Every structure is written in C-alpha cells, then in structure tokens.
Amino acid sequence: MDKLKKFLLENKVLLFLAIILILWLVAFIVIIVIFFYGSSESVYGNRLDNIQDKPITDTLKNDITTTFTKDNLASNVTINVKGAIIYVNVTCNDGVKLTDVKQVSESIIKLFSESLLNNYDIDFMINVPKDDKGKSHMVMGVRNANSDGTIVWNNYSTEEPVKEESSAE
User: Fold this and answer.
1) Are 92 and 127 in contact, with CB atoms under 8 Å apart?
2) What is the Cα–Cα distance from 63 to 81, expressed in whole angstroms?
3) CA 146 to CA 118: how far, in whole Å?
4) What is the pLDDT of residues 37-77, one digit of tens each?
C-alpha cells in the first residue's frame, strides 16, 4: 500500500492526465453510440409511411413520357422514383423553346392524383442543348408535396464560354 501511495504522490500529473483521457474516451464513445446507433428512424422521417398504398404506376410514367414527346419537344425522358421523390429528367430536341418545356412540365402536374401530389415531391431536370436562340440551358424545377402546387424553377443558361483574359507583356 505504501508503494501505491508513493507512486500516486510522485505521479500526480500523469494520474490527472490519465483520468482526463479516460473521461474523454468515454464521452467520445457515448457520443458516437448516440449519434450513429441511437436512432433507427428512416432518412425520410414518416413520409414513407403507407407510401406503398400510393404507387407511381407505369401508366402514369408512360403518360408523362408521352406528354413530353408528343409535340417533338424531348428526345429522351427518364422517370425515377426514390422514396417520396419522383425525378423526371428530360433531354430536349434542338430548337425547342424553354418556355414551352416549362409549360408542359407544369401541365404534367395535372396528371397526378391529389393523393400522389400530397405525398411525392416532383423534381424536373430539363436539358435544352440548343434552344430557338442558340443558347443551351439546364433548368431544374421542384414541386414540393407540401407546397401550393407551383413548380419553383432554377435556371442556368450558357451564352458563351468564359474567355480567359490575356495580359500584354
């Protein structure tokens, strides 16, 4: 016992640092367990509850594709459903007006039942390689399940490539 007391008295600093290190390790392990293993909830929360009762049918997917391709607006339409989000990717033909494609996208919302609109987000990604004015566009639109029904558009247009400035030497 005397040897232990002598060791503790001679190594107070080391003992103090060891206790702090152990406490940090315990706190770190507790935080890791709570953060990574403490919750088994879905990434989507409860939005996917009963989603299997409201499936996106192949008929609806075909109707969306037909709506884009019937007026020769699009060359390729792909529809992917991930969780509660419907991704509609459209590659348009050259010479198509961007406003026409946006109008068709907004008319597609009418193809969905009220039940589907209240449970699914709809994301449009429209690629216009060259519109009627020669510009290329990559337009993204989102209709949120909790929104008033409008599509919010984000526009990225390229008019000319960025030119590097040359310095006169």
Assistant:
1) yes
2) 15
3) 7
4) 766 666 656 667 777 788 888 999 999 999 988 888 899 99
